[in-house]
């Protein structure tokens, strides 16, 4: 079921991101990572994922969610705790993953912006 109010708010956000990044939206979705779930480190491949701006906006999160951005020279993780309502751009061509070690689900709005200069 589509929530018209949520749809309108999402459209407004997407339009602003298209202006900010001088492009057009590709993938737009809400993703939920359940409490206790882990997405192991990986690198996204392919032409599309190599040209887009992958943007995350945390909607619901907790202080025990770590977005892993790789490892340091000593093998320890480089991670950040993304705060709700803040825009984050992730380089999905580098190793990344996420661990929700909290007791609540995590929800992000993910928007891919395809730069106009990359369009055919």
How would you describe this protein?
It is a single chain. The chain has 120 residues and is of the alpha+beta class. The chain has two helices and eight strands. A four-stranded antiparallel beta sheet has the order 1-8-3-6. A four-stranded antiparallel beta sheet has the order 2-7-4-5, with no helix packed on it. β4 and β5 form a beta hairpin. The longest helix is centred in the N-terminal third of the chain and has 17 residues, at 4-20. The protein starts with a helix and ends in a 5-residue tail after the last strand. The model has no long low-confidence stretch (mean pLDDT 94).
The description of the largest β-sheet is: 4 strands, antiparallel
Number of helices: 2
- Total beta strand runs: 8
Q: What pattern of helices and strands is seen along the backbone? A: HEEHEEEEEE
Unreliably modeled segments = none
Amount of helix:
10-25%
Question: Mean pLDDT, nearest integer?
Answer: 94
Proportion of beta-strand residues: 35-45%
The coarse overall form would be: globular
Class computed from helices, strands and strand pairing: alpha+beta
The strands making up the biggest β-sheet line up spatially as: 1-8-3-6
The end-to-end span amounts to 34 Å
How big is the Rg?
Answer: 15 Å
Task: Give the arrangement of secondary structure elements.
Layout: H1 4-20, E1 23-33, E2 38-42, H2 47-51, E3 53-60, E4 65-71, E5 77-80, E6 88-90, E7 96-100, E8 106-115
Antiparallel strand pairs: 1-8, 2-7, 3-6, 3-8, 4-5, 4-7
């Amino acid at each position: 079921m589509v929530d018209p109010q949520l749809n309108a708010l999402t459209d407004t956000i997407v339009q602003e991101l298209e202006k900010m990044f001088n492009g057009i939206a590709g993938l737009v979705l809400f993703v939920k990572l359940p409490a206790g779930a882990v997405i192991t480190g990986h690198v996204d491949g392919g032409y599309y994922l190599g040209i887009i701006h992958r943007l995350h906006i945390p909607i619901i999160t907790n202080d025990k969610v770590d977005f892993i951005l790789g490892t340091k020279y000593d093998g320890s993780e480089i991670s950040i705790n993304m705060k709700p309502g803040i825009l984050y751009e992730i380089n999905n061509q580098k190793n990344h993953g996420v661990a929700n070690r909290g007791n609540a689900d995590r929800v992000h709005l993910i928007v891919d912006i395809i730069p106009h200069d990359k369009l055919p």
